[in-house]
Amino acid sequence: MDTPNKADTCATCGFALDAADDGDERTPCPQCGSTARSYSISCTGQLHIRGGHALKLFRQGKRPWVLHEKSEPAFQRSHNANAQREMVVDRENDRYRETVTLDETGEVVHHCEEPLSKHRGHGNKNNKP
Predict the structure, then answer these.
(1) What was the pLDDT predicted at 95?
(2) Half-sphere exposure of residue 65: CA atoms within 13 angstroms, side-chain side
(3) Within 13 A of 26's CA, how many CA atoms are on the CB side?
């Protein structure tokens, strides 16, 4: 966040006053003589919004799903940085693909692409090799 900007002005005429004049007895405004003051402060900053999507494809009248795809924001603990995680599980074509890319540098920190039938022991503690 940037440094806040503070402005002190005469409440009657809007003349810019010295910010150091904060005592109990105010000095009258040199333009109109009023002791009424108006104070304002403003701050600026940036907001970064991250988003993603997820979908599951089902064949009509069949369960379970045949394709699961998602792209989502993630936090990469090993690099202490925000990342984007993309995953595709394709049961029809026996494919699994996962890629984790750091947001700031675009560096791929994890990539896995293999047949789904060979993808074991990831994410589900009930899976036993």
Answers:
(1) 96
(2) 9
(3) 17
